[in-house]
Design brief:
The chain is mainly α. The chain is about 70% helix and about 0% strand. α5 crosses α6.
Length: about 130
């Protein structure tokens, strides 16, 4: 189970306890089986499905909302990650050739790579 799914299960189960709803009553209110509700809220269910989670959340009076980072900031973070990967490759190659990069050279290389990734085709930014 992913960390996000585990956190969501834990929070929903805490909410269930806080409002005093039994697993059986929650199953009845959602139309899900008792075992499904128990597995989801205990974190046993690896992939409960979005509809299942929404049903449980609504029955507990919880709204699910998704918040996204600013798109430009998200793209910039991705470009910086990719630039760090490129820099690591260059540093590895330079070390093999006994030509270490100065801190200033590394900074300029990273800035240039970030700029090129943001200005270039988006597939380069997102490709692994």
């Amino acid at each position: 189970m992913t960390a996000i799914a585990q956190n969501l299960s834990t929070r929903l189960n805490q909410r269930r306890q806080d409002v005093g709803v039994t697993f059986a009553l929650l199953a009845q209110r959602t139309g899900l089986s008792l075992r499904t509700v128990q597995r989801v809220l205990s974190g046993e269910e690896n992939d409960p499905g979005f509809g299942t989670v929404v049903s449980i959340a609504e029955a507990l009076g919880v709204s699910l909302r998704f918040e996204a980072d600013d798109a430009d900031e998200f793209r910039r973070k991705r470009a910086e990650q990719k630039a760090d990967q490129v820099l690591a490759l260059v540093q590895g190659t330079s070390a093999l050739e006994a030509q270490a990069l100065s801190d200033e050279s590394k900074r300029r290389l990273k800035e240039r790579t970030v700029h090129e990734l943001l200005a270039g085709p988006r597939r380069k930014l997102w490709a692994d």
